[in-house]
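So, can you check what follows?
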Amino acid sequence: MQDTTPGQPIDRLIIVCCHAIWLGGLSNGFNEAEWAIEPFQRGETPTFIEHIKAGLRALAHASSFFSILPSPSGHPTTTTITKQITHDPHPTDSYQNLLFSLLLFRRKITSYPTHITIISHLFKRPRFLELHVPALKYPRERVTYVGIDPPEAVTPRGGLEEGERIKEEEEFALTLFGCDKDGYNLWKNDPYGVGAVLRGKRERRGWSAEKMEEVLAGLEGEERRGVEGLMGWQGGGVSPGEVPWG
């Protein structure tokens, strides 16, 4: 994909983390019946629209941006919208949202971004900036986070933050009831999502070894080994390996 500004390279990435699927309809998403959502997401579809709007505003401010909308839970979404916006059907969690967007940027632009803007819920800001970004060894000073939570009347902020700090044993219980929370503490103890809880959640959302090959397409040599190290590190803490965007 080429930038629409002559002579100006695409070197910035916008990630709009998608949490549900709009099925289409006359209201353009303003009717919640047009969305495929989980029961606990009722009333939150206007927030998903605000995430999209925030991504478009960021895109409008700089024509050298490339925007990616990772699909929720591995479900397919709309295909390419413009020359600068695409989607990624592979991510199954927030860590994969960030990592796979970097890799898709690499496949499309043939280089890695010099700056990333992440758009998601405000309550997930610590998870991204304190855990995912350091785990990927991407420079923190080159990341901007735009957080938008549902209104208090829909989903109280305290409940969202409590869910983020959920303990591993509680996660098993919530999973049984269909609740979809990826707690901060789970990622703090398992920064690459390779343990039983987070790995199991990925598998339930359709993640497989075959999809890993799709994500790694085009990478060779040290570059591929560096990314594979991030995807499979089980030694605790941050992976000691080199990363290609370092």
About this structure: Strands lie at 12-16, 21-22, 35-36, 65-70, 85-88, 115-120, 143-147. The first strand starts at residue 12 and ends at 16.
